[in-house]
Structure formats: structure tokens, C-alpha cells
Amino acid sequence: MSPFAAFFRNTTRPALLVVLGFSMTPGLAGKLYKWVDEDGQVRYSDTLPSEQVRKPHQQLDPDGRVIESHAARKSAEEIRREREEEQRRVEAERLEAERQAKIRAEKEHHDRVLLMTFTSLDEIRDAEQERVAVIDSVIGLLRRNIDQEIQTIESLEARAMRDYISQGQEVPGGLAQSIEYFNEKLLNKQKQLELKLDERQRIKRQYAEDMIRFDELTRQQNNGS
To answer: Which residue of 30, 32, 87, 147 is most buried, as measured by CB atoms within 10 A?
Structure first.
């Protein structure tokens, strides 16, 4: 290390500024660097260590004023990760734009179908009642089937209790299988019922939204005419 560099490396900032202000002449003034080392100590030198080039540092003028500030340079791996992150961001924005465009297109299509299918709110109400009536008939049938399955299971379980369990005997395989079979049928019917009840609510909600939208569209048409 040159004597000049060693001097600045080991000089405190107040003393350094005095030297800069009174000892350095324009003819002797050169580049001066400032940085913080790994131990958190502020360092000054007329040469910048190679290991510090990619790290934050400043270049000073002879009066100790900052001429340039250099942030830490990014490694090739950091640059690669940032580029990949930017590509992911752009792709996500593209996909979101496509999704929004699809939603708008579907809404516009639904509006056209709504206006072509119905001419009044009463027609929409009638269509809703017809759809709901069909689903209600299926729901009623499922509930009757569920009641029958429950009765069958209760009868089989009562038989198993009366003829075998109460006698300390094991329930025969055929009877046990029948009870399991009808329990599975019951579970299946109950799941179907849940689906139909959900469908009923979904249809009623959709028709309610359709009536609101139909009213908005017809008002817009009337105001525009």
C-alpha cells in the first residue's frame, strides 16, 4: 500500500478533512475513496481495494465532498433472479389481462343472450319458477328415497340386534353386508340431495341477478332511444 493510501486508511474523518483542506494542493489532489469495511469502520484511501469495487463506496473531491456514490453492484445470479422475477411479473399481468378480457366477453355475451331470450321481468320469473319446480321434484324424490333407506337400515339393524347381538352372537356376513350396502346407498342419496339443494340456491341467485341486470339493460336501452 502506498504511503498516501496508508495515511488515509488510518486517519479519522476530522483529521482527514483538516489534511484535505490545508495540506493537499491542486497539483497533488487525486482520487479519494470512502467506504465502510467489514468491521463497520469508515475507510479512506486514494485507491479502492478490488474487493470493494462491487460494494457500496463513494468518491470524494479534495475538500471531502462526495463526487460520486456507487451502490453495491449486483452479481450475475442476482441479475438473473431479477430478470426471472420480472418475466414472471409480466406473465402474471398478461394472464390477468386475459382473464379480465374473458370475464368482460362472457358478461357481454350473457347480456346479449338475456335480451334475446326475455322481453320482460315476468318472463324471467316464470322461467325461474319452471327450473326450480323441476329441481324441487328431484329433491322430493331424493328425500323419499332417503327415508326408505333409513327405514331399511333401521329394520336390518333391529334384526341384527334382536337375533344376534343380544344373544351374544356375531352378525352373519350377509346381514352385515346388507347393512353396509344400504348405509352406502343412504350416504350417496344424501350427497345427491346436498348437490341439488346447492343447485337450487345457485339457480335462484342467478335468476335474481339476471332480473337486476335485465332491468339495467332495458333502462339503458330506453334512455338511449
So the answer is: 32
Note the helical H segments in the chain. Answer: 3-9, 13-22, 76-117, 121-163, 173-224
Q: Is the pLDDT of residue 17 over 60?
A: no
**Model confidence pTM above 0.70:** no
Which residues, in sequence order, are bridge partners of residue 68? 59
| CB contact at 8 A, 117 and 218 | no
27 or 81, higher pLDDT: 81
Same domain, 31 and 56: yes
| Residues 124-168 pLDDT 10s | 999 999 999 999 999 999 999 999 999 999 999 999 999 999 999
Quick one: 18 and 53 in the same domain? Answer: yes
CA atoms of 78 and 74, how far apart (whole Å):
6
Report DSSP letters for 68-82, one per residue: EEEPPPPPHHHHHHH
Nearest-angstrom CA–CA distance, 35 and 59: 9
**pLDDT single digits (tens) 21-67:** 434 444 445 678 887 887 778 888 888 787 777 778 878 877 778 87
- Residue 83 lies in domain: 74-117
In this structure, are 196 and 129 located in the same domain?
A: yes
Cβ(46)–Cβ(30) below 8 Å: yes
How many whole angstroms separate alpha carbon 112 and alpha carbon 108?
6
- State how many domains the chain has: 3
- Compute the distance between CA of residue 143 and CA of residue 136 in angstroms, rounded to an integer: 10
* Cα–Cα distance measured from residue 33 to residue 43, given in angstroms and rounded to the nearest whole number: 8
- Given a contact cutoff of 8 angstroms between Cβ atoms, the answer to whether 2 and 30 are in contact is no
